[in-house]
């Protein structure tokens, strides 16, 4: 007997599950601001012959692409499930987070390569122009990051957008400081060194997003969910003597699903008891899409990959 619960009692997680819907305006504002700033940076960087500014413009351009990708994933995730995609396109948000991380890492690799060459042949820059443009960047990137701040903890797709913008604010601040020190000391090599530091800071901040997105793409248990605790919770429910074939995975960056077989010798406990189990899973572990199969005794279904078969 199989019971599937998309738990209506989990009101505490309702906003959490649909958080991306509230970020449409943030994506639009962020994209417009950053496209404008990229144009300003490209012109100013070329005029000032500043690698740091040109590199930052390239990075901001990748962020525009990243914002478009993240927003597109949110829109795709709203597609209604059909006979071909029974979960809809929810997983697009996980893929977007992964691609965003890849874009950042590749862009920073190219920046490191170019900065290494610039160190060998440093050229003078116009410090005043660099400082003005970088100061604008600090303001724009900080404003854009603030738009995504509220969603960064519960959705790695939104966190990817937030990290891009927050990293840009740090980058712009670094470029601003580089321009100031250059005007003070006249160090030709400083522009390239700041570019290298910027790249390393961004790589460090992006690595967690990259690792987590790969983890979810391969149906890893979402961060913050202890599978041993989930199994113990299910075993503690009234009438349950054993739990097996337990799987937990991310349907999207905001929704978690579970399947499990519950051995209940006394038989099906009734809808109220099943709703209570779904309620516990939602509020204790933020698992809002559980599918539970009730068995009178344990049967071997040949599921060698199930975590609960080895605990």
How would you describe the overall organization of this protein?
The protein is of the alpha+beta class and 311 residues long. The chain has two domains: 20-217, Cation efflux protein transmembrane domain (Alpha-lytic protease prodomain-like, Up-down Bundle), CATH 1.20.1510.10; 227-310, Alpha-Beta Plaits. It is 61% helix and 9% strand. It is built from nine helices and four strands, in the order βααααααααββαβ. The chain is elongated. The two termini are 24 Å apart. Mean pLDDT is 79; it is low at 1-21.
Unreliable segments of 5+ consecutive residues? 1-21
Compute the separation of the termini in Å: 24 Å
Which series of helices and strands comes N to C? Answer: EHHHHHHHHEEHE
User: In the residues, how many domains can be counted?
Assistant: 2
Give a brief rundown of this model.
The protein has 311 residues and is an alpha+beta fold. 61% of the residues lie in helices and 9% in strands.
Task: Give me some keywords for this one.
4 strands; 9 helices; 2 domains; Alpha-lytic protease prodomain-like; four-stranded mixed β-sheet; elongated; 311 residues; single chain
Give the topology.
Layout (H helix, E strand, L loop, with lengths): L1 E3 L9 H4 L6 H25 L2 H27 L14 H29 L6 H22 L7 H30 L4 H28 L9 H9 L6 E9 L5 E8 L7 H15 L3 E7 L16
Parallel strand pairs: 3-4
Antiparallel strand pairs: 1-4, 2-3
